[in-house]
Amino acid sequence: MLFRLLKSYARLALRIYIRRLYVNKPAMLQVKGPVLFAANHPNSFLDGIILTTLLEETLYSLARGDAFTPRWNKWLRRIHLLPVYRTTEGAGNLAHNYTTFASCHEVFAQNGVVLIFSEALCVNEWKLRPLRKGTARLAISAWQKDIPLTVIPLGFNYSSFRSFGKDVHLLFGSPIQKESVLQPDGDGKQIQAFNQQLQAQLEGLVYHLDAGDQEGLRRHFPVPVNRVEKMMLALPALLGWLLHALMYYPVKWVAALFDSDHYDSVVAALHLLFYPLYLLLAILLVWSMLGWTSLLLLLLMPFTARALVRVAGR
């Protein structure tokens, strides 16, 4: 129940936070399991949140293991996150990945859907980083258990990692075939065959741009000029800035205290967490002057925020 409520709320909120969302294969959003999405990882936990809100099926995401402290472990698992450990988090923790793989196998056995970040590292950049072996090992171990798993490459692409109101492109690839991976040549050859196929597909699904390449960004994320829309939304957008500035700028300042590669995700998460409270406080403030009319803010504030996102530049 908690997961469904959060998913529904995040689905609505991201319609405001993201200016334009493009999916190259919309049918993939109705996919049935068992499925493993093998993706790049440019924007921290915002990658997982976006895919979670778009999919019809419940999504289980693999997340960095050091976040699963005793304090947060239960809550993270309740929103369908599973820990995966890297050598940088201690070689002794790597054995816990077998438990996570077993949990993934259980999800697959129930026709579930799992998201894994095949680079195993989040970096705000427009390129594909070297792939680790975890995705291959998870897929191969499932196939060896006769689980009819479908592995689908997925590229996350963002027009910006710092601005409010960005364009996001989700590019799905073609399923990786079990028969082309499971060879009688040993695990090493199988992992190599899997990663070669995954690498080849992700190279075509992930945009490759140098930092500061504005021309490349405009080419991949064209912004159609609609003067009529801009004229109609100009005043609502200005009102949206006035109504939300008291929340937006403090959120930016707090997010700047975190690792830069997590900045965008922290900004999105803080807005998701505190916007209902901010909206409630605005209604209570106006209530003393306008009474029940203040409830119109429930529609006005989200509308003006959306108008600001539509009008604002990249």
Automatic annotation (TrEMBL):
It comes from the Bacteria. It holds the Pfam family Acyltransferase. GO terms for biological process: phospholipid biosynthetic process. Keywords: Acyltransferase, Membrane, Transferase, Transmembrane, Transmembrane helix. One of its GO terms (molecular function) is glycerol-3-phosphate O-acyltransferase activity. Residues 35-159 form the Phospholipid/glycerol acyltransferase domain. The chain crosses the membrane at residues 233-255, 275-300. This is 1-acyl-sn-glycerol-3-phosphate acyltransferase. It comes from Cnuella takakiae. The lineage of its organism: Bacteria, Pseudomonadati, Bacteroidota, Chitinophagia, Chitinophagales.
